[in-house]
Amino acid sequence: MQAKIQWIDKSHFIASGGSGHEVPLDGAPEAGGKSRGCRPMELLLMGLGGCTSFDVVSILAKSRQHVVNCVTEITAERASEIPQVFESIHITFKVSGKNLSATKVARAARLSAEKYCSASIMLERGGVKITHDYEIIEV
What is the DSSP code (8-state) at residue 113? Predict the structure, then answer.
């Protein structure tokens, strides 16, 4: 796996991955940026969300659950002192489907957190407290 970060100007960068996709990065105006892209720490949360969402949807499909949508919402608390690392992260899976089993949704979230999501496990090993919950939306 590889990534490249190209400086554009001030605090504006373009990140590209080995897959060939690009993501703009920029700082807040108070940090010299012009909000032309994601903040790097936002991108870290998005990566975590993508990783765990992929797991949950995949596990539920293998469990023969009829999922029609999954929205993962993440909130994080950062340290007030530099480095402003994440201290805690809360993940809520909002899973929509027909006759979804609460037991299977809870199991999918737990398996992602404890076994499959590399991003989540890496952050927890680094001292970040990560919690999960879920909401089932019947369609």
Answer: I
